[in-house]
Amino acid sequence: MSTSTKRMATAFGSLAAATLATVALAAPAHAADRTIQLTSPSGAVHSVLSWDDSVDTLCLTLRSGAAGAYADADMRLVGGGSAQYLHVSASRPRHCTGNLSIAEDRLAEMRLYGGANTFHSSTGWVQFYT
Fold first, then answer.
1. What are the E-state strand segments in the chain?
2. Which one has a higher pLDDT value, 9 or 90?
3. What's the CA gap between 128 and 76, in Å, rounded?
4. Fewer CB atoms inside 10 A, N or C side of the chain?
5. For the residues 48-62, what does the mean pLDDT come to?
């Protein structure tokens, strides 16, 4: 084997090893669970909206016992696509979607809004990865 052939083989071997190391150390998927809370003017948690990435499920929970308490939530994929709406009140304080079967690592956003007889508020849109 010539010296130039040996050098090429060594260089190729180094490149292959570096490529494998890069693949092995690649960053994990962006997807993760995400939770946002809406608080009342007193600072108490009014409602909670959670994305469970392991089962692609969105859940809205009302924690307030105030008169007329309710909460609504929206979720949508950035750039279009699937959209969800959830509503909870004293008669139904928890509402979850089934598995939404959304592709991994899609940029999405959700918002939580609600109130009671004495206040109304919103979290605004919060981005996350599915």
1. 34-39, 45-52, 57-62, 70-77, 83-89, 94-96, 107-115, 120-122, 126-129
2. 90
3. 10
4. N
5. 95
CA atoms within 13 A on the CB side of 87: 1
Q: For residue range 82-110, what is the model confidence (pLDDT) as tens digits?
A: 789 999 999 999 999 999 988 888 999 99
Token pair of 119 as six digits: 């206040």
Sign, CA dihedral 25-57-123-94, equals negative
CATH number of 34-129: 2.60.40
Tokens 């392991």 sit at which residue?
54
Q: What is the CA radius of gyration of the chain?
A: 24
